[in-house]
Amino acid sequence: MTDTPPLADGYEISTDPHRIDAERVHRWLSTDAYWALGRAREKQDRAIGGSLNFGVYDTVSGEQVAYARVVTDRATFAWLCDVYVDPSVRGKGIGTALVGAVREELLPYRLKRMLLATHDAHGVYEKLGFAPLEKPDQWMALYF
Q: How many separate helices (H) and strands (E) can be counted in the chain?
């Protein structure tokens, strides 16, 4: 497993659900994230409520600058989703550090696997140990 990359100076990561700026997260995802375009605020709030949430915050202003959530039973499985970094802070390694922090937070649970889906960020996740499914023909999905 690869080392967890350090977070850039001036930022901190928190799993405190009370710090999540739900309005900002909804705006980011529903207007700028290809996987969540048009997602209703009520649906996003339910997703936040049922997930383990990670925020990255500017240590001076307290402003949230990135977000990720994990759907997990904390025993066997996790799904990493809704990873988003505000465009104003991209290129500082914040996304990579955030995903590394997610991985570290879940390690003590000894999960069998953590999955994610990405259209365009394979390189970011590969740096942190993610790999294509070994047997994709064994996986199925139910689409609604």
A: 4, 5
User: Considering only CA atoms, which of 8, 14, 40 is closest in space to residue 26?
Assistant: 40
- Give the model confidence (pLDDT) of 6-23 as tens digits: 998 999 999 999 999 999
Integer Cα distance of 36 and 28 in angstroms:
9
Cα gap 60→76, rounded to integer Å: 37
CA-CA-CA-CA torsion for 70, 75, 76, 77, nearest 10 degrees? -10
| Residue 98 · residue 13 · CB < 8 Å | yes
Residue 120 pLDDT exceeds 80: yes
CB atoms within 10 A of CB 89: 18
- Pick left, alpha or beta for residue 62 (phi over 0 → left; psi -120 to 50 → alpha; otherwise beta): left
Measure the CA–CA gap between 95 and 75, rounded to whole angstroms.
Answer: 25
HSE, CB side, 13 Å, CA atoms: give it for residue 73. 6
Which candidate, 84, 86, 81, 143, places its Cα nearest to that of 117?
Answer: 81
pLDDT in tens, 58-90: 999 999 999 999 999 999 999 999 999 999 999
